[in-house]
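seq:
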Amino acid sequence: MSIYAKEVNKYLVGLQNGDITQFKPLYESMQTHVMGVARYYLVDKSYCEDVTSEVFQKIFLYVNSSYTEGTDGYNWICRITENVAYNYNNRMPPPVKDLDKAEHFVQELAVSDDTEEKLDLFRAIDSLEPDSRELIYLRYFMGNTFQEIGEKLHISKVAVKKKIDKILSRLKIFIETGKR
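struct:
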């Protein structure tokens, strides 16, 4: 077992013994490794931060029940990361390959002179949940950046981008097919 793995084990054993001060050094030493493993296994790389956060939650929750002192803690954490990434791949919608086209499509409809196209866009926007409508309004009608929207809603700009990307793909499908 490497010196690094022994250090990780020391932190995990400390957590098992109730020393929560061991969590911060564990996080600091493993965060980049966990993100690297997550990035490798995820289909949509934009979920790396979400997976990393969930992995450390699982470590904290399950260190007493699933980690066995003396085993390789580094590999235990890597397996947790693989499993969380696998779960994300299965429960999150696949990335939209033509997202730029979807965004362009919505932008064009927003400034279109064709009344029927605008009505289609507004019907599609009306079909959204209130939170989603607010994001679209702030981004495309008020011209706010992802950063500005994130600051207003107290979420990260990455989270704003992910949410808007999902909304755009739903809007495009709704406009083209008339189905949600």
